[in-house]
Amino acid sequence: xTFTIADGGNNVGVRPVTGPVSATYTPPGGGAPVTITLQxxxxxxxxxxxxxTTLPTAQFPNGIAPGGKLAINYNVSSGNVAAPATVxxxxxxxxxxxxxxxxxxxxxNPPAVTSVTDTTNVRGLTLVKSQALDETxxxxxxxxxxxxxxxxxxxxxxxxxxxxxxxxSSTALGFNLNALTISDLLSNFxxxxxxxxxxxxxxxxxxxxxxxxxxTSAAVLGTNFTIVPGGVGTxxxxxxxxxxx
Length: 245
What we know:
The protein is mostly beta strands.
């Protein structure tokens, strides 16, 4: 029999990874599972054959035994498999794609062709930048006052910026985001405001690790965050509106 792993074609940023796949065989009667590697029939292809040549004789003396199970494991890639060249190469976080695995039995009076559709949910990092007005530059503003709309700030008043990075992967199937840096360019506000010295700060939700706040000549940063699935890392800093513009 052969099986093919095909792209569903609904999301150009997501596709099955071609090439070798792994298969885990669980023998009937509670035997120990065995994982093998299956090569495609054509190098870099997406069609695979299960027969006496591709299945190791030691584990499959007579093929897949009655009651045995063979689970196919394959990877799905967002964008270029190695390294997306541009943002456009990568799939949008929150988008989905399908892939279709089709099994074609061979031989005498083979069973009908069957297929299953898998759905890939794209998870990863989202960034949200918001701001709050700090009229007295005291640094005490309620979390509820942060907005993503424009603010009107007068000279000598302050604005607190908050950048939140969220790991949207799930606890059950997710992954940590490690060595993450959150940054903002000083040039985004330097024409009309100054960074308040000592104001950059970082924080993270439970089980995540906050980065280290710092400032360079070009940017304000929080470096080396670790964000667990569902976790949030935050960089905040304050600017003061110039009165001599």
